[in-house]
Amino acid sequence: MDIILSIILGSMFGFALHRVGATNPNVIINMLRLHDLHLMRVILFAIAISSALLFIGLSIGVIASSHLSIKASYWGVLLGGILLGAGWAVSGYCPGTGVAALGDGRKDAVFFVLGGLCGAAIYMAAYSALKGTALLENIFGGKVTLAATPNESFGAIISSIPGIAVALVLAAAFGIAAWKLPGKKNG
Protein backbone atom coordinates (compact mmCIF):
# COMPACT_ATOMS: atom_id res chain seq x y z
CA MET A 1 0.00 0.00 0.00
CA ASP A 2 2.89 2.38 0.78
CA ILE A 3 4.30 2.00 -2.74
CA ILE A 4 0.91 2.81 -4.30
CA LEU A 5 0.56 5.91 -2.14
CA SER A 6 4.12 6.92 -3.05
CA ILE A 7 3.38 6.55 -6.77
CA ILE A 8 0.16 8.56 -6.46
CA LEU A 9 1.75 11.36 -4.41
CA GLY A 10 4.87 11.41 -6.62
CA SER A 11 2.71 11.66 -9.73
CA MET A 12 0.72 14.51 -8.22
CA PHE A 13 3.96 16.30 -7.26
CA GLY A 14 5.39 15.80 -10.76
CA PHE A 15 2.17 17.12 -12.30
CA ALA A 16 2.31 20.19 -10.03
CA LEU A 17 5.97 20.79 -10.97
CA HIS A 18 5.02 20.59 -14.64
CA ARG A 19 2.07 22.98 -14.23
CA VAL A 20 4.18 25.70 -12.53
CA GLY A 21 6.94 25.40 -15.14
CA ALA A 22 9.56 23.79 -12.90
CA THR A 23 10.28 21.07 -15.47
CA ASN A 24 11.63 23.71 -17.85
CA PRO A 25 15.25 24.59 -16.97
CA ASN A 26 14.86 28.03 -18.58
CA VAL A 27 12.15 28.92 -16.04
CA ILE A 28 14.40 27.84 -13.17
CA ILE A 29 17.44 29.68 -14.53
CA ASN A 30 15.35 32.83 -15.05
CA MET A 31 14.23 32.53 -11.42
CA LEU A 32 17.83 32.16 -10.24
CA ARG A 33 18.81 35.20 -12.35
CA LEU A 34 15.90 37.09 -10.72
CA HIS A 35 14.27 37.76 -14.11
CA ASP A 36 11.03 35.84 -13.47
CA LEU A 37 10.05 35.26 -9.85
CA HIS A 38 6.78 33.40 -10.54
CA LEU A 39 8.36 30.06 -9.61
CA MET A 40 9.92 31.57 -6.46
CA ARG A 41 6.46 32.76 -5.44
CA VAL A 42 5.11 29.23 -5.87
CA ILE A 43 8.00 27.78 -3.82
CA LEU A 44 7.53 30.31 -0.99
CA PHE A 45 3.76 29.74 -0.89
CA ALA A 46 4.35 25.96 -0.80
CA ILE A 47 6.77 26.35 2.11
CA ALA A 48 4.31 28.60 3.96
CA ILE A 49 1.34 26.30 3.51
CA SER A 50 3.16 23.03 4.15
CA SER A 51 4.98 24.26 7.26
CA ALA A 52 1.75 25.63 8.74
CA LEU A 53 -0.14 22.41 7.98
CA LEU A 54 2.70 20.25 9.32
CA PHE A 55 2.87 22.04 12.67
CA ILE A 56 -0.90 22.25 12.99
CA GLY A 57 -1.07 18.51 12.28
CA LEU A 58 1.66 17.85 14.86
CA SER A 59 -0.06 20.04 17.46
CA ILE A 60 -3.48 18.40 17.16
CA GLY A 61 -2.05 14.89 16.93
CA VAL A 62 -2.96 14.12 13.32
CA ILE A 63 0.74 13.73 12.47
CA ALA A 64 3.05 11.87 14.84
CA SER A 65 6.47 13.48 15.32
CA SER A 66 7.93 9.97 15.02
CA HIS A 67 7.16 10.26 11.28
CA LEU A 68 9.67 13.12 10.95
CA SER A 69 13.22 12.23 10.05
CA ILE A 70 15.56 14.98 11.15
CA LYS A 71 18.98 14.59 9.57
CA ALA A 72 22.12 15.59 11.42
CA SER A 73 24.16 18.58 10.26
CA TYR A 74 27.71 17.78 9.18
CA TRP A 75 30.32 19.21 6.80
CA GLY A 76 29.33 16.78 4.06
CA VAL A 77 25.80 18.23 4.06
CA LEU A 78 27.20 21.73 3.56
CA LEU A 79 29.50 20.55 0.77
CA GLY A 80 26.63 18.60 -0.81
CA GLY A 81 24.41 21.69 -0.62
CA ILE A 82 27.05 23.75 -2.43
CA LEU A 83 27.35 21.07 -5.13
CA LEU A 84 23.56 20.84 -5.44
CA GLY A 85 23.26 24.61 -5.78
CA ALA A 86 26.00 24.77 -8.39
CA GLY A 87 24.43 21.91 -10.33
CA TRP A 88 21.02 23.55 -10.08
CA ALA A 89 22.36 26.84 -11.45
CA VAL A 90 24.25 25.15 -14.31
CA SER A 91 21.61 22.61 -15.37
CA GLY A 92 18.39 24.36 -14.40
CA TYR A 93 17.27 21.24 -12.53
CA CYS A 94 17.18 20.05 -8.95
CA PRO A 95 16.60 16.34 -8.27
CA GLY A 96 12.79 16.60 -8.12
CA THR A 97 12.42 18.82 -11.17
CA GLY A 98 14.94 16.72 -13.11
CA VAL A 99 12.94 13.52 -12.61
CA ALA A 100 9.70 15.36 -13.42
CA ALA A 101 11.32 16.77 -16.57
CA LEU A 102 12.36 13.25 -17.53
CA GLY A 103 8.72 12.21 -17.18
CA ASP A 104 7.85 15.25 -19.30
CA GLY A 105 10.05 13.85 -22.09
CA ARG A 106 12.93 16.35 -21.95
CA LYS A 107 16.08 14.80 -23.41
CA ASP A 108 18.46 16.95 -21.36
CA ALA A 109 16.85 15.57 -18.19
CA VAL A 110 18.11 12.09 -19.12
CA PHE A 111 21.70 13.31 -18.72
CA PHE A 112 20.85 15.14 -15.51
CA VAL A 113 19.21 12.09 -13.91
CA LEU A 114 22.00 9.75 -15.08
CA GLY A 115 24.58 12.19 -13.69
CA GLY A 116 22.76 12.28 -10.36
CA LEU A 117 22.63 8.48 -10.21
CA CYS A 118 26.35 8.28 -11.03
CA GLY A 119 27.11 10.81 -8.30
CA ALA A 120 25.06 8.80 -5.79
CA ALA A 121 26.88 5.60 -6.81
CA ILE A 122 30.27 7.30 -6.36
CA TYR A 123 29.22 8.54 -2.92
CA MET A 124 28.04 5.05 -1.93
CA ALA A 125 31.34 3.55 -3.09
CA ALA A 126 33.35 6.19 -1.21
CA TYR A 127 31.22 6.20 1.96
CA SER A 128 33.26 3.66 3.91
CA ALA A 129 36.44 5.65 3.23
CA LEU A 130 34.72 8.92 4.21
CA LYS A 131 32.98 7.55 7.32
CA GLY A 132 35.89 8.16 9.70
CA THR A 133 36.74 11.63 8.40
CA ALA A 134 35.67 15.04 9.70
CA LEU A 135 33.45 15.32 6.62
CA LEU A 136 30.79 13.18 8.33
CA GLU A 137 31.16 14.42 11.93
CA ASN A 138 28.19 16.27 13.42
CA ILE A 139 28.35 20.06 13.51
CA PHE A 140 26.00 22.71 14.90
CA GLY A 141 24.63 20.22 17.43
CA GLY A 142 23.84 17.40 15.01
CA LYS A 143 20.08 16.83 14.91
CA VAL A 144 18.69 20.29 15.57
CA THR A 145 15.49 21.99 14.44
CA LEU A 146 14.47 25.63 14.50
CA ALA A 147 11.30 25.07 16.54
CA ALA A 148 10.25 22.42 19.03
CA THR A 149 7.76 19.77 17.97
CA PRO A 150 5.59 17.69 20.33
CA ASN A 151 7.35 14.59 21.72
CA GLU A 152 10.59 15.40 19.94
CA SER A 153 13.84 13.57 20.57
CA PHE A 154 16.10 16.26 19.09
CA GLY A 155 17.06 19.80 20.09
CA ALA A 156 15.40 23.03 19.03
CA ILE A 157 17.14 26.36 18.56
CA ILE A 158 14.03 28.26 19.72
CA SER A 159 12.81 26.12 22.61
CA SER A 160 11.27 28.87 24.78
CA ILE A 161 8.41 29.48 22.32
CA PRO A 162 5.98 26.72 21.28
CA GLY A 163 6.89 25.27 17.89
CA ILE A 164 3.42 25.94 16.48
CA ALA A 165 3.85 29.69 17.16
CA VAL A 166 7.28 29.77 15.50
CA ALA A 167 6.00 27.77 12.53
CA LEU A 168 2.92 29.95 12.01
CA VAL A 169 4.95 33.17 12.21
CA LEU A 170 7.45 31.81 9.67
CA ALA A 171 4.63 30.52 7.47
CA ALA A 172 3.04 33.97 7.51
CA ALA A 173 6.42 35.59 6.71
CA PHE A 174 6.98 33.25 3.75
CA GLY A 175 3.41 33.80 2.55
CA ILE A 176 3.76 37.58 2.74
CA ALA A 177 7.15 37.46 0.99
CA ALA A 178 5.64 35.35 -1.79
CA TRP A 179 2.68 37.69 -2.13
CA LYS A 180 4.94 40.75 -2.34
CA LEU A 181 7.39 39.30 -4.89
CA PRO A 182 7.08 40.73 -8.37
CA GLY A 183 6.37 38.48 -11.33
CA LYS A 184 8.41 38.86 -14.48
CA LYS A 185 10.94 41.71 -14.65
CA ASN A 186 10.75 44.03 -17.63
CA GLY A 187 13.94 44.06 -19.65
Distance between the termini: 50 Å
Radius of gyration, in angstroms, nearest whole number: 19 Å
Shape: globular
Arrangement of strands in the largest sheet: 1-2
- Number of DSSP helices? 7
Give the structural class. Answer: mainly alpha
Share of β-strand residues: under 5%
Report on this structure.
By secondary structure, the protein is mostly helical. It contains seven helices and two strands, in the order H-H-H-H-H-H-E-E-H. It has a two-stranded parallel ribbon with strand order 1-2. Helix 3 runs antiparallel to helix 7 and helix 5 runs antiparallel to helix 6. The longest helix is centred in the middle third of the chain and has 24 residues. The termini are far apart.
Ordered list of secondary-structure elements with their pairings:
Layout: H1 2-20, H2 25-32, H3 38-60, H4 75-91, H5 95-103, H6 107-130, E1 144-147, E2 155-158, H7 163-180
Parallel strand pairs: 1-2
Looking at this protein, list some descriptive labels.
single chain; mainly alpha; 7 helices; globular
Describe the structure concisely:
By secondary structure, the protein is mostly helical.
